[in-house]
Amino acid sequence: MTTSVSPRTASMAQALNSALRDALREDPTVHVLGEDVGALGGVFRITDGLTAEFGPDRCLDTPLAEAGILGTAIGMAMYGLRPVVEMQFDAFAYPALEQLFSHVAKMRNRTAGKLPLPITVRIPYGGGIGGVEHHSDASEAYYTSTPGLHVVTPGTVADAYGLLRASIASDDPVVFLEPKRLYWGKDELDPAAPVEPIGTAVLRRTGTSAVLITYGPSLPVCLAAAEAAKAEGWDLAVLDLRTLVPFDDETVCRVVRSLGRAVVVHEASGFGGTGAEIAARVTERCFHHLAAPVLRVTGFDIPYPPPMLEHHHLPGVDRILDAVARLQWED
Amino acid sequence: MTTSVSPRTASMAQALNSALRDALREDPTVHVLGEDVGALGGVFRITDGLTAEFGPDRCLDTPLAEAGILGTAIGMAMYGLRPVVEMQFDAFAYPALEQLFSHVAKMRNRTAGKLPLPITVRIPYGGGIGGVEHHSDASEAYYTSTPGLHVVTPGTVADAYGLLRASIASDDPVVFLEPKRLYWGKDELDPAAPVEPIGTAVLRRTGTSAVLITYGPSLPVCLAAAEAAKAEGWDLAVLDLRTLVPFDDETVCRVVRSLGRAVVVHEASGFGGTGAEIAARVTERCFHHLAAPVLRVTGFDIPYPPPMLEHHHLPGVDRILDAVARLQWED
Amino acid sequence: MTVLDHRHRTPVPGWMPGATAPRTDPAPLLPDPSPVRLLGTPALEKYEPALLRELYRRLVVGRRYNQQATTLTKQGRLAVYPASTGQEACQVAAALALGEQDWLFPSYRDTLAVVSRGVDPLEALTLLRGSAHTGYDPRASRTAPLCTPLATQAPHAVGLAHAARLRGEPVVALAMLGDGGTSEGDFHEALNFAAVLGAPVVFLVQNNGYAISVPLSAQSAAPSLAHKAVGYGMPGRLVDGNDAPAVHAVLTEAVERARTGGGPTLVEALTYRVEAHTNADDATRYRDEPEVAAWREHDPILLMEHALRELGVLDDDLAQEAADEAEALAARMRAEFHADPELDPMSLFAHVYAEPTAQLREQAAQLAEELAAEAEVSEQ
Amino acid sequence: MTVLDHRHRTPVPGWMPGATAPRTDPAPLLPDPSPVRLLGTPALEKYEPALLRELYRRLVVGRRYNQQATTLTKQGRLAVYPASTGQEACQVAAALALGEQDWLFPSYRDTLAVVSRGVDPLEALTLLRGSAHTGYDPRASRTAPLCTPLATQAPHAVGLAHAARLRGEPVVALAMLGDGGTSEGDFHEALNFAAVLGAPVVFLVQNNGYAISVPLSAQSAAPSLAHKAVGYGMPGRLVDGNDAPAVHAVLTEAVERARTGGGPTLVEALTYRVEAHTNADDATRYRDEPEVAAWREHDPILLMEHALRELGVLDDDLAQEAADEAEALAARMRAEFHADPELDPMSLFAHVYAEPTAQLREQAAQLAEELAAEAEVSEQ
Ligand SMILES: Cc1ncc(C[n+]2csc(CCOP(=O)(O)OP(=O)(O)O)c2C)c(N)n1
Ligand SMILES: Cc1ncc(C[n+]2csc(CCOP(=O)(O)OP(=O)(O)O)c2C)c(N)n1
Ligand SMILES: [Mg+2]
Ligand SMILES: [Mg+2]
């Protein structure tokens, strides 16, 4: 892919902005639409400068109505365009769920492949930024339990760029979940680097004791936990799923079988969370390799707390290490 | 509770109708609202005769807008009423998901208990009745993964009456999922029988080989599978969860520990389905009692099929027995 | 040039301090107090006899189509059928008002409009037969899938029309809705998007008096549904939905307005659902026969036939031709629907994604095994 | 008698075959072409001086409240604050137009209206401070929680007003929304429900020209937002939102209309968001200073002070009194917000359900253990 920039350090927000800019440059059918994506550049500045460069036809400030935004994007895709929708915050995607569940996820199937919908729905999700209620929901379970959608969530700057490019290029609808608390973290970005396809997990850290299976906002927490675990004598691997649907059973099971112990970590509430699927399928496929049950470290089963209390809700290093300690080492 | 009827045989639809009638009679704060719930009695006749008996103030034909219906019910509950909302079909509850997720599930918590919302949202769900697309979704995962909601789903005529009464009486919001394909099945109904509280699973059939864990529309299928299993030499127990949230860990784990083998059965798609949570938590809590992984028999990970193909999608006796056969009996 | 720049030339934020007048004049956006009618008026004479005959022919064929489809439900050949009996004027006028390149966005009740556009009845009815979700090729026919979730097709029409406009292609999208559908949030959001974008789309609301059992009086308190248009800044038109030439004239004007950059229009057609909601519904629970009878006399075909004969553009031969064509269609439907559809269980996995995922391949293999096993058993 | 029978007496389905007129006359439902104004008009003399002074006093206090809250964000004492600076006339008039028993349904921007109703600023601002979702008792104050998901509070207001009416209690609900909020489906559904039910509710849309960065011209193409009312069959009123007596008069009339069975009203108040969307926003990215300057001169307090002094109902003493009260409030806010809030982590589990579930009890125990462990560590 040709790109707007040479290797440099960038924040995840800048990487996403570059991915959108490069996609708009390379493919005239790509159109961005959403609330405040124009002059403002989005409340997180992910679309900064796009309307200035490409004009309102390519990057559109819509009226304030999420079902209308996604429904309009569906019609645009039906005509052959490749819309990229921005939902302003996780909880503000809920008005669009009927359009997402009943049309975006079903249109290709409903029409025997005649009407694919190559739509990317970008949703900043999760907490940790001191947002007031409705601004911090980890809402991935609604999407991962809906057949017909792909669900992608980057945990690094490089993946933010690469996976967004891959998602926009995908002929299937992708719910692209952006861990908003990682927006400002900087790292090396080489837009020219080859892009991993959607659907592949990656081992961020090798280890010999057990593996932490995680994604998106919890990746840095798990890496920190792995560091801290050394003091306890545990050498933890960290697996970054990156794509939740389609799930990379092969990579995940290979790692789990080799280590025999796994903890799934995400900040969404545990009950009915995506971690349940991960634990269940890993157990189904790796049962006799497991020395201990696959444990889950997640947010509590409560509505997202007010900012001053959110740190109690979010899985932290200690809570992860407590779970690791329960992996029945005595066996 | 005083009741409108003495013991008799009734269909699940009639039992639900009796429960609504008795609740309306006994509690003046109970109000029913929804689409076509008045003169028509609802498309499934669950509200048959209620407007005739109680008038439009108590059983209201609303305009055709699900977010408006649920949002209006929220306001009514804020004023001290006890609304019972009917969503016409599973997929037609989706327009109301923002109101459900952002308000119904959160209002009590958001107001430190000052504004409880004793709302019952009745949703006919699941397939097996030859409905065209959008009329057969098994949508329970969206509700079970949302903290703040109770999720109840009866599998028998008696529970349909008892659990609906209990749900309406609950001071917490309840998503009451009605297995539409069981609406017309008849059984004994004694409305005077004591009502089991929300949150308790029940063993429908004892067994010594393994347990089928299921709920709602899949209960009769599991009972049939247990019958058929006898020929294969398996004596299967069947556990009816009845309530998905709050989950009855105690009963479920007691049964699983005693048998060491379990299969979770539901018609919703497997990936991210409620069965994943059941398998994951049972494994976490009963790991060393398990002779085999907890397996799942579910619908495929596809949009609900057209009527003429739905029987291929829905878990049937054979598919359940195939799973039971994979419970590693050689061990 | 960018299509949307005009939005940025309009006064921002739209009001100035101490402003004394609305941003635009509402008067032209309001519907005339009484519905547009042509049948039985002198204005009808200005119309192409050929067009009037074409409308008549399609009405007669359309009525027969509705009757035959209803019969097929009784024979179990269709799972369910929401008839447009009594609404044929809206159905055929909608089809006729659109050009080849235009797109139709029908609801579950609008299969006649789809067929009248040229889609084969067998393909148009797979959803209601239960054999497939969508039986026709939406791209080839420029006809979106029959939409069941109410009003959700409205924003699709806006998006498609907007996309065509961005491409500089003179395509118009026509979305068909019911009176009940206007209560849904998606209706509101779609009309607002259409007006703000200036999208070439026409919203046709067939006000047939009921949403299943709920009468309009319990659905809306508006003077008319067409009065909703001014709230979006688009013209609202009110037309007698049983007057085929009137519906055709109003729609054609709206379509041309859209095509020439005039933006969207909301059209309310006053009609009546003469049959029950579907064959599964029991209308006697919520409405009286006299009401239905009154509307049966205001039948779109009777009104049309009477007016055209008076005008001298319709004679017995033409009427017979139409009747014959109608019978031919009915015969073809009977024949086609008598045969059982070909069903492929493996198709369940073929189009969920561009490529089946590893999980779907596993699941497809499982089903294939099961089917093979069943086949074996049944062979023995 | 049942409240809702009227709906069943209206003609069903609302139109008769060949009908020639809308069901109701739209004219009275349309807003006057120019916004209602009182300041600087002779009509002002008819107003109670006491009421005018009360409005003035609340405006002055309200402005100071906005300034102090904004300052608190700079000091990190509030997480975020969406100021209603420039919109004080709408905020205080809304509070004053309601009676004790009436309910207010505010948005995140309407904390001044909440405070002006009598809720303590510390309690009104917990959401924006980040210490608790809702700091006040909605039942005791008849004030719903500050609503963030746009327009979702509108149907709540309808339901509450409807419930009160069913109980025969003369309660009116006032829902406050922004111009952007009118684009949401929930706005549409709520207004339609209100009109169909005849619920005693008033919808106040503060059209402050922007939804964050999006100007009204990109939000709606309507002549005015008040023109949406006719599409629901309720009256729409247009008022200068910076003219406090005018807003108060229009709202009071609508509230009384609702209270006496006249049904809902939509009021559009033309005002301007003088500050950025919140302290976190950068308005220079999307609007120019001259535009803001023009509105600063149309300031609700300047306009009010000028008019009242001309009328001779305001003198320096009164102005000083108001200024003193404003300072006293600001001082109290500084003091109260300087202290750190009391936070109880275990409260996270206390109100999810009436009774914590077994799972929540387990999770609470886990957190309690963690906190105890931390405490131990920090003691060492
Ligand atoms: C979102 C949604 N809610 C409910 C339904 C169930 N439903 C199907 S048709 C119908 C009535 C629609 O009435 P109207 O819009 O007037 O169209 P008509 O059937 O009269 O043509 C309802 C409630 C649906 N299809 N979609
Ligand atoms: C459903 C929903 N979508 C998006 C948002 C994010 N958001 C918060 S305020 C705002 C702008 C609202 O503008 P307006 O309704 O005019 O009110 P104002 O802020 O001007 O008072 C947006 C888009 C939200 N809170 N809710
Ligand atoms: Mg209708
Ligand atoms: Mg605004």
How would you summarize the topology of this molecule?
The complex is a heterotetramer, with two copies of chain A (331 residues) and two copies of chain C (380 residues).
Chain A: E1 8-11, H1 12-26, E2 30-34, H2 50-54, E3 59-61, H3 66-78, E4 82-86, H4 97-104, H5 107-110, E5 120-125, H6 140-144, E6 150-152, H7 157-169, E7 174-179, E8 186-189, E9 202-205, E10 210-214, H8 219-232, E11 236-240, E12 243-245, H9 249-259, E13 262-269, H10 274-286, E14 295-299, H11 310-313, H12 317-325
Parallel strand pairs in A: 2-3, 2-4, 4-5, 5-7, 6-7, 10-11, 10-13, 13-14
Antiparallel strand pairs in A: 1-8, 6-12, 9-11
Helix pairs in contact in A: 1-7, 3-4, 8-12, 9-10
Chain C: H1 6-9, H2 49-74, H3 88-97, E1 103-105, H4 111-116, H5 121-124, H6 126-129, H7 138-141, H8 153-166, E2 173-178, H9 185-197, E3 201-207, E4 210-211, E5 214-215, E6 236-240, H10 244-259, E7 265-270, H11 289-297, H12 300-311, H13 316-338, H14 358-379
Parallel strand pairs in C: 1-2, 2-3, 3-7, 6-7
Antiparallel strand pairs in C: 4-5
Helix pairs in contact in C: 2-3, 2-12, 2-13, 3-10, 8-9
